[in-house]
TrEMBL record:
Biased composition (Low complexity): 1-18, 90-102
Protein name: Terpene synthase
Organism of derivation: Streptomyces goshikiensis
Record's compositionally biased regions (Pro residues): 36-58
Domain of life: Bacteria
Reactions mediated catalytically: (E)-2-methylgeranyl diphosphate + H2O = 2-methylisoborneol + diphosphate
Enzyme Commission number: 4.2.3.-
Source taxonomy: Bacteria, Bacillati, Actinomycetota, Actinomycetes, Kitasatosporales
Length: 426
């Protein structure tokens, strides 16, 4: 893993953080000689839950616990925000649910999460299907089983434990469904193809990042946004998102989606030329073809904002990238058998390692587990370092939200036995 010394903490972070106050705990920004913090430019987010003072610069379990926030049965209601419904009797729900389905990849470093609140899962699942069928005509009836099997309600409730209401959860859920329908229909096995993908993706991207043109041509563009399910889904999900997001959160999301689409195009270009990238090249592509746009909306879904200047800090960007990379290699590991069974060669980390590192598929898969674990440890170490260096409540809560998304994403991949199964390597 890259030398932690390369961590860009010693950059513009202190000055940026000082502008937002540090009502957090323990060593604040003064440690960098930043002097007493200026009053927050934005209304400060509610103070982070009282906890032990920030630890020394090396990560430690206390900081990891702070980043995760309270966990375990019955703690779902301990987060800062108002909840719309009383939390379900988690203990009873967990008993009824029994052990989580599926099993974790042996040797994979991860954090189990409590069973998502079944009351919220049911309501989100009901509402997202209503939206998919009645508002955006997302899929033909013959795809209904696959839509249900994706279990997007359970996914999003697991990934956003601090969402104050179901309406907030729906913001993430519509975007998750739209992102996947673009991938399925434009890139993958529901009519997707690398041929001409660039044009399709750019036009779909204008549903997120509007075309500004003349009165003569604007109507044609507006009509195009209703012409297929991917664009209907992107347009609608983005409209709901921008009602709640600030301008900088919306701009952040558009940037992250442009990254995602660039990653799709690299993957498609290599498919067209039948090129198997070097391992580092694959990891670079997967940093863009990546879950990143999902955890980075954790503040909008949580009903608060990580200020743009703090989000833009190199140290924050690095933590986001490490978390996104870890979440996406989780997908490579859990979708490995599904992709092996799909037509042609579907690139994922084990396939690329086997191709270039002269090992058999089992050793390649185990190496990919190690790569994931290294990414997770780097994410957690640098998140803890960042939390200690910049104990601004919105930063702490954002980091905790990203960590929760990482854990919820693993939970969904492990338990979605409709979609994924593990290879018989153990
Ligand atoms: C939801 C979202 C932003 C997805 C980003 C990119 C993406 C589709 C993945 C990371 C999932 O990868 P993959 O295409 O391999 O999906 P499956 O393995 O088919 O679930
Ligand atoms: Mg996959």
């Amino acid at each position: 893993m890259p030398d932690p010394g390369s961590s860009p903490l010693q950059s513009s972070l202190p000055a940026a953080a000082a502008r937002f106050g540090t009502h957090g705990h323990g060593r604040g920004i003064e440690a960098f000689g930043g002097g007493p913090p200026a009053p927050p430019v934005l209304p400060a987010a509610p103070p982070a839950p009282a906890g032990p003072p920030a630890p020394a610069r090396t990560p430690n379990p206390a900081m990891e616990r702070i980043l995760r926030g309270p966990s375990g049965l019955g703690t779902a209601g301990l987060f800062l925000s108002r909840r719309e419904e009383p939390p379900a009797p988690a203990a009873e729900a967990a008993e009824q649910a029994g052990p989580a389905a599926g099993r974790p990849v042996p040797g994979l470093y991860h954090h189990p999460v409590p069973e998502p609140d079944p009351v919220r899962v049911e309501e989100v699942s009901r509402r997202i299907k209503e939206w998919a069928v009645d508002e955006v005509e997302l899929y033909p009836p013959e795809w209904e089983d696959q839509f249900d099997g994706f279990s997007v309600g359970r996914y999003m409730v697991a990934c956003h434990p601090d969402a104050p209401t179901v309406d907030h959860l729906m913001i993430a859920t519509r975007l998750m469904v739209a992102e996947n329908v673009v991938d399925d229909c434009y890139c993958e096995d529901h009519g997707g193809s690398p041929v001409g993908l660039g044009g399709r993706l750019l036009l779909a991207h204008t549903a997120l990042d509007a075309l500004h043109t003349t009165k003569e041509y604007a109507p044609d563009w507006e009509e195009s946004l209703h012409s297929d399910a991917p664009r209907r889904a992107y347009r609608s999900a983005m409209e709901y998102f921008t009602r709640e997001a600030t301008a900088s959160q919306a701009d952040r999301y558009r940037h992250d989606m442009a990254r995602l689409h660039l990653g799709y195009l690299a993957e498609a270009a290599w498919a067209q030329t039948d090129y198997v990238p070097q391992v580092w090249e694959y990891l670079a592509m997967r940093q863009f073809n990546n879950f990143r746009p999902c955890p980075t909306i954790t503040d909008t879904v949580g009903g608060y904002e990580l200020p743009a200047d703090l989000h833009a800090q190199p140290a924050v960007q690095r933590v986001i990238a490490l978390a996104g990379n870890a979440t996406t290699i989780v997908n490579d590991l859990y979708s490995y058998t599904k992709e092996l069974a799909s037509p042609g060669r579907h690139l994922n980390l084990p396939v690329v390692v086997a191709e270039h590192e002269g090992c058999d598929v089992r050793d390649a898969y185990l190496k990919a587990v190690e790569v994931h674990n290294d990414l997770m440890h780097a994410f957690e170490a640098e998140a803890a370092e960042l939390a200690a260096a910049c104990p601004v409540p919105s930063v702490l809560r954002f980091l905790r939200g990203v960590a929760a998304w990482v854990d919820g994403n693993h939970y969904w991949h492990q338990t979605n036995t409709y979609r994924y199964s593990l290879p018989d390597f153990w």
